[in-house]
Every structure is written in C-alpha cells, then in structure tokens.
Amino acid sequence: MKKLFFVLFSAVLLSFTGKWEKSFENAQQIARTESKYILLNFSGSDWCGPCIRLHKEIFSSAEFIKLADQKLVLVNADFPRQSKNQLPKAQQQQNDLLADKYNPKGYFPFTVLLNSEGNVIKAWEGFPKMMPEFFIQDIYNAVNAGK
Question: What is the pTM assigned to this prediction?
C-alpha cells in the first residue's frame, strides 16, 4: 500500500513540473494566443551548478509552476557539454540563434522575460541573489508591469 501511494504521489508531482517548450516559434504562438509572456532560460544542464540549482530550487517549485501556468510560456535554451546529452542539430541551432540575440555575453544561467513579440521586458543574470519566493515575485511584478 505504501508503495502504491508513493507511485501515485510521484506521478502527481511529476505532472506539475511545468512544461518547457522546445520551439521558440511555438512558444511565441502560444504566448500570442493565450496572452502570456515567454520566460527564456539559458542553461548548461550537465555542467552549470547554478543552472541546475535554479531549475531544482525555483523552476520546480509549486509557486513558480503556478505562476508559469497562469502567465508564462517556458523555453529552456540548453547548452550541455557531455556528448551523451547533446541536443539534436536543429535544437542546437535554435539555441545558438537565441543566445546570439538574447544572451550575447554567454551568461549562465541567464533568464529573460519576453513579450510574445520577443521584446525583452526584464533579464536576470546568474542564480538569483534573493530567496526563491522573492525571485518568483520579481517575475510576477515584471509580467504585471509589462502589460
């Protein structure tokens, strides 16, 4: 019985992890259709400690997922280094183009809030130097100010 409960509980948690779009073009379309903003995160999923921590401590939190479901379309431009984690060529090309446009200095992690047209509303460099709930509130405030 305990095992069944754990499996069901795990499935419920996994269903609320927030959906990250792979295509920026699709993200823009969803943002336009649903009147949402795009949160674009540049990360190194297999080498950047602060990037991994950002996803684990903030982007996986219930509070962030609630905000994302209501106001955001999530896009992760990942730049893994290990060969086993390499992205398909088309995905890597898209991430490179996004980096050229939105993260030319190559910061990791780097998070950008965009409107549906791709205009920058606000950007955050590195792991937030504030409590997770304050970072989430900062995103929320930027979304509301961008209206």
Answer: 0.86
* Domains detected in the chain: 16-145 (3.40.30.10)
pLDDT tens profile 127-139: 999 999 999 999 9
The residues, ordered by sequence, that sit 6+ positions from 51 with a Cβ below 8 Å of its Cβ are 43, 44, 45, 108, 109
CA-nearest of 87, 77, 85, 94 to 43 is 77
- How far apart CA 135 and CA 104 sit, in angstroms, is 23
Q: How far apart are CA 132 and CA 71, in angstroms?
A: 18
Q: Which residue, among 39, 104, 51, has the nearest Cα to 75 in the 3D structure? A: 39
If one counts every other C-beta atom within 10 angstroms of the C-beta of residue 79, the result is 21
pLDDT tens, residue by residue, 91-128: 999 999 999 999 999 999 999 999 999 999 999 999 99
Cα separation, 96 vs 4, whole angstroms:
43
